[in-house]
Amino acid sequence: MKKSNIKAWLYLLPALVFLGVFMIYPLFDVVVYSFEEGYNSASQSFFGTGLYNFSYVLHDPYFLQAVKNTFILVIITVPVSTGLSLLISLALSSIRKLKDLFQTLYFLPYVTNTLAVGLVFMILFKKTAYSDGLINLLINIFGGQSVDFIEGPYWAKMLVLCIYTIWIVMPFKILILTSSLASVNQDYYKVARVDATPKWRVFSKITLPMISPMLFYLIITGFIGAFKAYSDAVALFGVNLNAQGMNTIVGYVLDMLYGNSGGYPSYASAAALILFAIVLTVTVINLLVSKKKVYY
Amino acid sequence: MKIVLEHLTKIYPNRNRKIKDEKIAVNDFTFEIPDGKLIGLLGPSGCGKSTTLNLICGLEEATSGKIFFGEDDVTKAPPENRGVGMVFQNYALYPHMTVEQNIMFPLGNLKGEAKLSKEQMKAKALEVAKLVQIDEYMDRKPAELSGGQQQRVAIARALVKLPRVLLLDEPLSNLDARLRLQTREEIRRIQRETQITTIFVTHDQEEAMSISDMIVVMETGIVQQIGKPQDVYDDPKNLFVAKFLGTPPINVFDAEVKDEKLYIGESAVLDVKGVADQPVFAGIRPEGFILADDGVFECKLSSVEVMGRDTSVVSKHNALLGTEIRSIIPAENKVDTSSPLVRFNLKPAKVHIFNKETTERIYFK
Ligand SMILES: Nc1ncnc2c1ncn2[C@@H]1O[C@H](COP(=O)(O)OP(=O)(O)O)[C@@H](O)[C@H]1O
Ligand SMILES: [Mg+2]
Q: What is the pLDDT of residues B105-128, one digit of tens each?
């Protein structure tokens, strides 16, 4: 090793130590826990090693519900939020007047606290003794029956959760997309115009390929983010998500650690590893697709 | 297709709306471009060349004036209906498409009866690719091509739909010197073969002079002179045109006309019949100097550069506006470098005098 190399590693040492202690070691620990059967964190003891923890988690109805919820959330919110963000960004980049105002408006949810946003959603959706919520008011006006979005049927709760999640994740996507739209060289559009290119063709053949790296970045991070969803559900339905049938995988992991029925780090670790495997698979698929589709 | 510009004017409002002042980018441009010619639009940066092109292709709307393609008034037509091909300075090739896809792109926009099958498009693309000699690289992406090759692809893309007019905005400025020379000949050849009326924008006078049938010299939005390159060079209308054309540039002196003689400093250097007494600018082309021991024009010799066929004599004079006089003389004429002075006679056709206030040319016999 050259002298300069040693120096470089020395500079990196503090960062590496921190990474090691707070990132690598816990990761390693999670794997270890997940194979230790009957681990007790108080006495630091366990009976044996094996796949029992995974088997338990995979047979736990709460976990299966959480997986189902998470997948529904991912499959609905990622495409919808990305698509909507793209539409809004395109609209934003084609207007001149009040552009800054709109940009700020769309960015507001990003700087708003999740729980505060949850409060607003309560006002919109929650049924109380005094009111049915703003949305129900609208439904009533159009002649529909009130729906209990917060404690009612599964689809209604899922709908609110999806809308909430989409609303929360859109500002960042809009921000990224408007700036990547703005960074496309205007000359491409001028040439296309002189060549009499129809609007949809400009979009599909020029704009979309040009922003595709950013789009895929958003889709991949969107998937990962949605798989890790938890706080949104809490903001809407409170901490007792299992009872509500609205738990997510991360929620399940937390419940297993700290919930009322908690204190099972081994189950939590197993669930976390399963989540990790899912996210890894989906991300790899995403990357493979993007290799084919994305122009860099 | 001939192109007629009538009193074409473009005024940009100031970007800062608080300042009411506006920018006249093109000022009352009137010109008839004959069919099938290559026109060089020439002028310093910011003089309104690109704006003129954008007006012709429709990317900018004229503030006033009219544009005709043949008999069609296209002043208000959107760019997609004008049938022009445009090549941008940076080529603007679609980076995610292959050369072939780039060239075919405009064909894919055709609608209705004009719509082509994939095979027809490919055939047409190949045809123009051959014309610009890029057909070997059809499957490459633009990033895998040299600047000159990208340039050709851009021209091919502009030509493939057989435009009525081809517009090139500084097409060579991103190329290195050697490629620039080669590519400008290519452009000339392609234009001759296709016979498409072409407007070629450049700030490099040599480029414009070498390939254009006619040049238009612009400054600050105003057309200064239009004509065949040699005519404009030989017979500039004003000091700006005289200074802008020619390398090395024309040598300009503070001078005076007295008794129908041109005085530079103390010495009368030329007879200028029919010119009233007045202070003037005198411009002498580098090739307007004749080395002569008894020459009328005496300068302080700085250096002599032998350049094969010619010799470049660098000298100084107090009345000169600029740093040094550059004169080009045949290599046979030997300059006595031991002497601190050098003397010239002047060729009357290579000396132009200009009014000191208006900088307009003053003609003499
Ligand atoms: N969109 C615009 N808004 C305001 N002024 C402009 C605009 N485009 C060009 N100009 C001004 O018009 C003048 C001519 O510009 P341009 O035609 O691009 O010059 P050239 O191509 O000869 O270098 C310049 O002074 C430029 O600043
Ligand atoms: Mg320009």
A: 999 998 888 888 999 999 999 999
A152 belongs to a structural domain:
no
Answer yes or no: are the C-beta atoms of B39 and B32 closer than 8 Å: no
Q: Are B171 and B159 in contact (CB under 8 A)?
A: no
Ligand 1, residue B54: give the atom nearest the CA. 17
Q: Could you list the residue range(s) of the whole structural domain that residue A236 is in?
A: 49-100+161-293
| Number of continuous H segments (helices) and E segments (strands) in chain B | 8, 22
Domain regions of chain B by residue span: 3-243, 248-362
Of B259, B257, B233, B262, whose CA–CA distance to B245 is shortest? B233
> Do strands B165-169 and B197-202 pair parallel, antiparallel, or not at all (unpaired)?
parallel
How far does B16 lie from chain A, in Å, by closest CA?
A: 15
Cα gap A155→A289, rounded to integer Å: 31
Instruction: Judge: B94–A205 Cβ closer than 8 Å, yes or no.
Output: yes
Q: Is the ipTM of this complex over 0.90?
A: no
3-class secondary-structure state, position A192: helix
Do the Cβ atoms of B280 and B306 come closer than 8 Å? no
Instruction: Report the CATH number that the domain containing residue A76 is assigned in CATH.
Output: 1.10.3720.10
CA distances from B218 to B21, B25, B26, B221, B222 (A): 22, 11, 9, 6, 6
Query: Tens of pLDDT along A242-252?
Result: 888 899 999 99
Domain count, chain A: 1
Nearest alpha carbon, ligand 1 atom 12: B25
> Per the domain annotation, does A26 fall within a domain?
no
Which fold does the domain B3-243 belong to in CATH?
Rossmann fold (3.40.50)
Structure tokens at A256: 């297993």
